[in-house]
Amino acid sequence: MDHSKHTPLNSTEYTNAILNDAPIYGADDEKIGTISHVHGVGTATDVVVDVGGFLGIGAKSVQLSLDQIKLMRDEAGVVHGVTTWTKEQIKDLPEHHD
């Protein structure tokens, strides 16, 4: 997927309503998980990503800060995120507990 033509989100769009269930793609453009919820507001936002599992069962939740992920919309307006991390690197992060 060519993300170069996708529009970055602005900080007012970093909300659960917009980001919940957005897919996250890794370094090799593989889908590594989906955003389950958001912590913080504006540029102080972190996202919690469910990685692995099947249909949410057995998934591990990890927290990523905005310096680890780029949030954007594609040409159809679909919100997604891109990180330079691989799925294995994300899975190795500490599990997030609310």
From TrEMBL:
<dbReference type="Pfam" id="PF05239">
    <property type="entry name" value="PRC"/>
</dbReference>
<protein>
    <submittedName>
        <fullName>PRC-barrel domain containing protein</fullName>
    </submittedName>
</protein>
<dbReference type="InterPro" id="IPR011033">
    <property type="entry name" value="PRC_barrel-like_sf"/>
</dbReference>
<dbReference type="InterPro" id="IPR027275">
    <property type="entry name" value="PRC-brl_dom"/>
</dbReference>
<feature type="domain" description="PRC-barrel">
    <location>
        <begin position="19"/>
        <end position="71"/>
    </location>
</feature>
